[in-house]
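Hello,

Our lab assistant flagged a job as stuck in the queue for most of the afternoon. It eventually completed. Since we weren't sure the result was trustworthy after the delay, we are filing this so someone can double-check. Below is the sequence as submitted and the structure that was eventually returned. Let us know if re-running is recommended.
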Amino acid sequence: MVAYLLLAIAIVSEVTATSALKLCDGFTRPLPSAVVILGYCISFFTLAQVVKLMPLGYAYALWCGFGIVLIVAVGYFYYRQAVDLPGIFGLALIMAGVLVINLFSKMAVR
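-- returned structure --
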């Protein structure tokens, strides 16, 4: 359970940092730039802790899959970036892959 909490922190901090990339304007704005650097530091530190507790491929699949879906949602709702039907289908495939790994694969140590 600790691994999943750390993974959630890694995902949220990575999404926060990635979201702030647009605001930092090429690292010319100090506050958003600090959010980017701090967010990625927290994300990679917590992800490094997670891979001590669960297999690397499994942890990375969850981190990437959820991170991609969340950053697309941030882009859509916060930055008003369009998402079309093929994009939604692609995101559904990513989430399906994460679900297959989580529910049916022996990659995950439970």
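-- support follow-up --
The delay was a queue issue, not a problem with the job. The result is valid. The chain has four helices and no strands. The radius of gyration is 15 Å.
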